[in-house]
Write a structure and sequence with these properties.
The protein has one domain. Helices cover 71% and strands 0% of the residues.
Length: 143
């Protein structure tokens, strides 16, 4: 039973949620290095409220972006299929982005290894995977 089809109202609601969560997660990812650099210049305290805020927002938003994107594929009435190249590669990059974001800025509600010393590598992985996903979503190779 198909709940919604492409451009149906429910499909568009999920598309809106997908885009909103991706914008929030990606915006936080690209602003994170700048915000942390400014914070380090202004404050020498050990605790970082900005890092904590980024951890609470970034990973969950990117996770939800992928969940809503997967829901769009399921709701598309076979217009989109996970076997399409752009979705298969995008799914792998999404997992990489969510993992990198969670390790760079661990959300306060889960315990992850402390890899703050590897933030530069995680930033690069996160930013490149987000940029390549954007290219995949625009040009859709293999569609």
């Amino acid at each position: 039973m198909v709940v919604a089809a492409v451009n149906d109202n429910w499909y568009n609601v999920v598309l809106l949620l997908h885009l909103l969560s991706v914008i929030i997660g990606t915006g936080a990812a690209f602003l994170a290095p700048v915000l942390l650099s400014l914070e380090q210049k202004q404050s020498k305290s050990a605790s970082s409220p900005i890092s904590s805020l980024l951890g609470t927002v970034m990973s969950p938003a990117l996770l939800l972006g992928g969940v809503f994107g997967g829901a769009l594929v399921g709701m598309s009435d076979d217009v989109y299929d996970f076997g399409q190249t752009w979705l298969a590669i995008g799914g792998g990059l999404w997992l990489l982005a969510v993992g990198s974001a969670a390790l760079a800025f661990p959300p306060s509600f889960i315990t992850l290894p402390d890899l703050t010393g590897k933030r530069a590598l995680l930033y690069g992985t996160l930013h490149i995977s987000l940029a390549v996903m954007l290219i995949l979503m625009v040009w859709k190779p293999g569609y």
